[in-house]
Design brief:
It comes from Callithrix jacchus (White-tufted-ear marmoset). This protein is α/β, with parallel strands linked by helices and 369 residues long. The protein is 40% helix and 16% strand. The protein has a domain at 10-199 and 226-262 and 331-349: Rossmann fold (3-Layer(aba) Sandwich), CATH 3.40.50. Bound molecules: nicotinamide-adenine-dinucleotide and 7alpha-hydroxycholesterol.
Length: 369
C-alpha cells in the first residue's frame, strides 16, 4: 500500500468470511474496494455461495482453515496486505465450552497477530463487540454512550471475556514491527447487536412466532433500549476502516470504534417487530406479560436443565441469565468517532436496512435455508 497505490492491486484476507457478518464483508469488498486484486476467504466452514464469486474479475481464494491453528493462519496471511479478522465463536447460550470460546476468540486472534508480524502484513482490522464494554454484570445502563463514556466494564461470561481480551491483544499489537521493519497498524470495531440478511436469531424468533399462531409475547419493558446496527453498514465500516488504515495510521492505529448507523433506539423486542411485524407477527402486550422474577427463575432453570441434560443432549435455549440481562439492560451508542477518524457514513439508510431485512425474513424465514 505505497504511493503507487492507484496502480497497485491489494490482497485482502477475511477470516470468518463465511459467517453472517463475514459474508457481507466479502461481498462489500468485491463491490466497493477498487484496489482489490485478490480476496482470500478463510473459514472453518466454507459456504457454497463462494463458488459464484470466483467467476468475477477479482481472484477469490477460499481457504478452509482454523484460526486456532497457527500454521494455517500464517499460510493464509502470507502475502496479504490487509487482514479483516472477523472469525469468532459467538456463543452466549452455553453451546461451546469456555475453553473452546477462549481458544477460538483469544488464541485465534493471537495467531492472526503473530502471522501478521511474521509475514509482514501491516494492516489489521478486528471485529470486536459492544460486549467488550457492556452491559456489565451489575446491569448498569449505558445510554447512548460513546467510546469515551466512563463505564465499569466487568464481565464474567466467557464470550465477552474472550472478546475483551482479544481486543486488548489487537490494540496492544499496534505499532509492533512486522517482518521488514514497518509498524503494524490495528484498530477494533465494536458492533452492537447486528441485524440484517442472514441473522439467524431473527429467523428463530420469526419461526417461534409462526409456531405460536403469529404472536410473540412481550417479556422486556419497551423502555429498555438495545443497540442495533445493520449488517451492511457494519461491513461497510470494516471495508472503509481497512482502506483508510494506511493513510490515517497515526489517527486510527490502536483505536476502537463503535459501529453505528441510523437504526432507531428501541427495546430488543420492539426492534425485531420492525421486521417481524410486516412479516405478519404481532407482539402481544404493551408491558411484559410475565413478571421479571419469573423470567429470572426460568433463566436459572434453563441453566440447571442444560447442566443436567449435558450427558444426553445439548440443551441451549435463547433464555439464560446472561441473555436476559443483555436484553433487559439499556445499552445504546451515539457517536461520530468513525466519521471523524475515517470519514464513515452509513451506506444504507434505516429505510433501506429495514426493507432489505424484511425481504430476507419473508424469503427465508419459513424455509430451511
Ligand atoms: N452477531 C452480532 O450481533 C455481533 C455483534 C458484535 C460483534 N460480533 C462479532 O462479529 C464477528 C462475526 O460474528 P457473526 O455474527 O457473523 O458470527 P458467525 O458465527 O455467523 O460468524 C463467525 C464465523 O467465524 C467462523 N469461525 C468460527 N470458529 C472458527 C475457527 N476456529 N477458525 C476459522 N473460522 C472460524 C465461523 O465458521 C463463522 O463463519 C464475531 O467476531 C463476533 O464476535 C457479532
Ligand atoms: C429475554 C428474551 C425475551 C429475549 C432474549 C434475547 C437474546 C437472545 C438477545 C438479546 C440481546 C442479544 C445480543 C446482543 O444483540 C448483542 C450481541 C453481541 C454480539 O457480540 C454477539 C451476539 C449478541 C450477544 C446478541 C445475542 C442474542 C441476545 C442475547
Amino acid at each position: 500500500m505505497a504511493d503507487s497505490a492507484q496502480a497497485q492491486k491489494l490482497v485482502y484476507l477475511v477470516t470468518g468470511g463465511c459467517g453472517f457478518l463475514g459474508e457481507h464483508v466479502v461481498r462489500m469488498l468485491l463491490q466497493r474496494e477498487p484496489r482489490l486484486g485478490e480476496l482470500r476467504v478463510f473459514d472453518l466452514h466454507l459456504g457454497p455461495w463462494l463458488e459464484e464469486l470466483k467467476t468475477g474479475p477479482v481472484r477469490v481464494t477460499a481457504i478452509q482453515g482454523d484460526v486456532t491453528q497457527a500454521h494455517e493462519v500464517a499460510a493464509a496471511v502470507a502475502g496479504a496486505h490487509v487482514v479483516i479478522h472477523t472469525a469468532g465463536l459467538v456463543d452466549v447460550f452455553g453451546r461451546a465450552s469456555p475453553k473452546t470460546i477462549h481458544e477460538v476468540n483469544v488464541q485465534g486472534t493471537r495467531n492472526v497477530i503473530e502471522a501478521c508480524v511474521q509475514t509482514g502484513t501491516r494492516f489489521l482490522v478486528y471485529t470486536s463487540s459492544m460486549e467488550v464494554v457492556g452491559p456489565n454484570t451489575k446491569g448498569h445502563p449505558f445510554y447512548r454512550g460513546n467510546e469515551d463514556t466512563p463505564y465499569e466494564a466487568v464481565h464474567r461470561h466467557p464470550y465477552p471475556c474472550s472478546k475483551a481480551l482479544a481486543e486488548w491483544l489487537v490494540l496492544e499489537a499496534n505499532g509492533r514491527k512486522v517482518c521488514g521493519g514497518l509498524p503494524l497498524v490495528t484498530c477494533a470495531l465494536r458492533p452492537t447487536g447486528i441485524y440484517g440478511e442472514g441473522h439467524q436469531i431473527m429467523r428463530d424468533f420469526y419461526r417461534q412466532g409462526l409456531r405460536l399462531g403469529g404472536r410473540l409475547f412481550r417479556a422486556i419493558p419497551a423502555s429498555v433500549e438495545h443497540g442495533r446496527v445493520y449488517v451492511g453498514n457494519v461491513a461497510w465500516m470494516h471495508v472503509l476502516a481497512a482502506r483508510e488504515l494506511e493513510r490515517r495510521a497515526a489517527r486510527m492505529g490502536g483505536q476502537v470504534y463503535f459501529c453505528y448507523d441510523g437504526s432507531p433506539y428501541k427495546s430488543y423486542e420492539d426492534f425485531n417487530m420492525e421486521f417481524l411485524g410486516p412479516c405478519g407477527l404481532r407482539l402481544v402486550g404493551t408491558r411484559p406479560l410475565v413478571p421479571y422474577w419469573l423470567l429470572v427463575f426460568l433463566a436459572a432453570l434453563n441453566v440447571l436443565l442444560q447442566w443436567l441434560l449435558r450427558p444426553l443432549l445439548l440443551y441451549a435455549p435463547l433464555l439464560n441469565p446472561y441473555t436476559l440481562a443483555m436484553a433487559n439492560t439499556t445499552f445504546t451508542v451515539s457517536t461520530d468517532k468513525a466519521q471523524r477518524h475515517f470519514g464513515y457514513e452509513p451506506l444504507f439508510s434505516w429505510e433501506d436496512s429495514r426493507t432489505r431485512t424484511i425481504l430476507w425474513v419473508q424469503a427465508t424465514g419459513g424455509s430451511a435455508q
